[in-house]
Amino acid sequence: MGSFEVKQAGSQGFDKCWQLCDGTSPIKFDTKGNALFVIYRRNKTEDMGSFDILVNGAKLKTINTYNKDSWGEAFPELVIKFQTNKDMTVEIVPCEGSEDKKIQILGIGSAENGKKIGI
C-alpha cells in the first residue's frame, strides 16, 4: 500500500478509501483484464493532490483531484481499455509536490472478458 492507508472516506457511497498519508510510495498490485478504472474523490479545496497511474511501468494518466466545480464527490476514470485481456502491474503514485496533499482512492477495478473485478 506504500504511503497510503485505509481510512474513513466520508464520500457518498464509499465508507473507506486508500488515503495518502505523507510520502510518495505507490500502491502497487497485479491484475489481469482488458480494462482498468479508478474511482477517486475530487474536491475544490486547495489541499487536493495529483497522482500518476502506471501500467507495466508506463505512465498512462495523471489525475488531479482538485476540480473547481467539485463538492467532494466520487469520480470514476477509465485508465485504459485493451482489445484482449492483459496481465497488468498497476502503480498509483503521488505526483511530486503532492506528498502532503489529500488523495483518496475510493475504488479500483478491472474487467476480464466483460466480467467486472473489483479490487
List the helices and strands and how they pair.
Blueprint: E1 4-11, E2 14-20, E3 27-41, E4 50-55, E5 58-64, E6 74-94, E7 104-112, E8 115-118
Antiparallel strand pairs: 1-2, 2-7, 3-6, 3-7, 4-5, 4-6, 7-8
General description of the model:
The protein has 119 residues and is mainly beta. The model has no long low-confidence stretch (mean pLDDT 89). 0% of the residues lie in helices and 65% in strands. It contains no helices and eight strands. Strands 1, 2, 3, 4, 5, 6, 7 and 8 form an eight-stranded antiparallel β-sheet that branches. The chain is globular, with a radius of gyration of 14 Å.
Task: Give a brief description.
The mean pLDDT is 89. The protein has 119 residues and is mainly beta.
Mean pLDDT across every amino acid position: 89
Taking the sheet with the most strands, its summary is: 8 strands, antiparallel
Outline type: globular
N-to-C SSE string, H for helix and E for strand = EEEEEEEE
Q: Indicate the proportion of strand residues.
A: over 45%
Pairing-aware structural class of the strands and helices? mainly beta
The proportion of residues forming helix, as a percent range, comes to under 10%
Number of helices: 0
Straight-line N-to-C gap: 13 Å
Radius of gyration: 14 Å
